[in-house]
Fold Multicopper oxidase.
Amino acid sequence: MKYKAIYTLLSLIWLGSLTCSTSKPLSPEFKPRNNFPSADKYFSHDNNKQNNNKGHNINNQGHQKPSSKGGNSNNSPHFPSFPSFPSFPKPNHSNHKPPTNPKDKSQTATDKSQPTGSSPTKALPTSSPTSKTSPPVNVSTSDSPGIFEPFTPLEYKGPKTREFNFTLKRTNLNPDGYSRVVWAVNGQYPGPIVRCNKGDTLKINVNNEFDDPTGIHMHGIFMNQTTWFDGVPGLTQCPQSTGSSFSYIFKVEQYGTYWYHSHFVAQYVDGLRGPIVVHDPEDPYKDSSDCEYVMTVSDWYHEPTGNFMPTFRSVNYRGNDPVPDSGEISGVGRYDCSKVTDGTPCEDKGYATYVVKKGKRYRFRIINTSAMAHFIISIDNHPMSVVEIDGINVKNHTLEYLPINIAQRYSVIIHCDKDVDNFWIRAIMSRCSIPYRPGDPRTINSNSSLNYEVFGILRYEGAPKTNPNSTSFDIPNSNTSDCYDVDLNNLKPYPADPPPENADHTLNFTVNVVLLPTSRMLAAIINGQSFSPDFDNPTVMRLKNGEDPSRFQPSDNAYAYDIPSNSVVDVVMINRENRTHPFHMHGHAFWVLCQGDPGTNSSDPSTLTLNTVDPPRRDVVTLKPLSTTIIRYVTDNPGVWAYHCHIEWHVEMGMVVQLIESPDILTKQQLPNMPSSLTDLCKQYDNSTDPLETDNTDEQTASTESYSPPVDKKPDDSSSKLDTHPADQPSGIVPNDPSKMPLTAPPNYNKFPDDLHFFDDSFKDLFGDHSGKKSGKKSGDKSNNSSSDKSSNSSGGKSNNSSGKKSDSKSGEPSANESSAKKPGESSAKKPGNSSANKPGNSSAKKSGDNSGKDNKNNH
């Protein structure tokens, strides 16, 4: 009995050390190694007994450069014990102090024990690991805590296989209070958190009980040697049919913050999305935080996308992108239910709430899972130190607010060293990312009661469950914020990871939104072509069956297939639009060498300053309005990789290219090993159920007849050159003469843009041989028929035909006027500094600027 009592006492002490809420403050040097325990009925785990690979190389982020120049990964950053944050004085803005009403229960926060209200069941209960026969370190625990449950890194004892079961089913939920049908994972929105260690193998079993096909992309995961599991219907697989099951099986050779989402039509906008966290046992920042949280930010639509996609992709449509109804933090929003006039159930959801303990340091993994919204994120009185971007560790850099574009991810660490209290979490949607005029009948949902400012609560343990009375930092508001990334100079990789000095090849891409001259449909184009996916015959299958990618059609937007393996490639992105575009590359992370200022969309990149010393490395970069952006990557991952704008409406309009990398290696060495389950998907896929194959011929014909096109202009010889085609610009800008381009864009480029300016028939040659394809291909204006016929992955649900009046701030919330109107400072749009920048060199820069006159080899 004596020994049993001692063992019990020691066990209780050990269990207390596992959680993030121990009463004894943790020192910065404390090393919590075991994960936060929680039960999960949806997941099973296969702990491999055999482990023949116990080595662990943290330099391997999935890419091997031709030569390694990185620093020693075993060196600790200059911040091993996380030094105290500097003291920031509170700004003297009396209007930043919102009124509070502690008695108003509708305004109290969502407690972590009941995280979202977007699940039909209560939060998964927590449990303590117990074992009579095994030591505590061997106790198996859940890999998927709730979205508002803190966790610590998973125990690492070598690579293992972790298996997750996803049941996809439409479920009635109300994330922002307004009830609608949600395309949910295991009845949840956001979907369950998937966690693993670097080196693990993930098996994700997907049972599709939707009434429409699907395909799930693991955003940011390189899928090395398994390109067929990248989850992109039309490129890497046929859609997964209704009622079928399919397993994604892949090794995770990276670490960091990622997410999964549907890549079929606009399905992820309706709810199919969730976080992925990959822990690194050798993370240089593992001792800089005591616990971790996942936080997502997103826009949200009350109407299923299937209800308005046919209109959005119709011949008649001339409006802007569909407008969201609200914003959310981690799946919790607060729509003003007084605006609901159609009888749809609506309730106040409270606030997304994260509970912390005084004295602790927390790592927040922040993911923007929006369809179109750029966010500015801040936590009152709590500066954030950025330590990771898009799965790449960076030297810690402290910010008061964090700009984050669609699909980007950041890890930030905050020190909870304030008095026990409640503090506002602010997620402000930038108006520059949602260009519309309220009440404009041309734009879908232009009567949205959108409140651009979304709030959550950081609640210290022991604080009353009332609304905060905190004041914000001096941050931009929704009107004054731009849609840029964090300053490049402040995102230096850690350990150092400079790019190869010179590029071997250059890809030139020009981006725009136009009116197709023949079909008269709006289309998003890259190099004059709008991508048209072939769901019946995805690119991977075409390559497996022996097709030559050089003979693909122009609308396939195929590039890079003739670039040798392990080449260094520069991608020059020229944005001809007066709005930003967040571009994501599948299968790779790239170095961002340059983000030109607005108005610098010259076709000669040699005029720009490139940072080839310590540029940031990531997989989503923002193209600024009317500008040139240059990125660099290495072709070390054979596969079929999408490269696209992550504004979902622009994907649906065709702003996609596919990089077919090392097709010889792919077809000879990898595709023969492709699982038969991929072929089975194509056999099961029924075209008659494909929402994109709806026959709208009669409707389109009638629409075309009723449409009066602009008066055609006389053809201009200069239009035959890709770099000199007209852009979607306000009047007064002459993009086909770079010498006459203004140094900066008009002052309204990031506010509500002017009406769209379209191509007319005089520029039809842009859709032929000038798309960068090899000779002998079919040319001419090929309209995106699959896009034009798009119907929906979704159906049902009620639309919100509510008043167009803008929602007022709720009682207790800071109003829209309370955010400072100051422009983002050093965390937004600076040029690379002199210490880390240089003019384009003799090799890579000239390739970037001189490519227009070269043969097709350097254009793919």
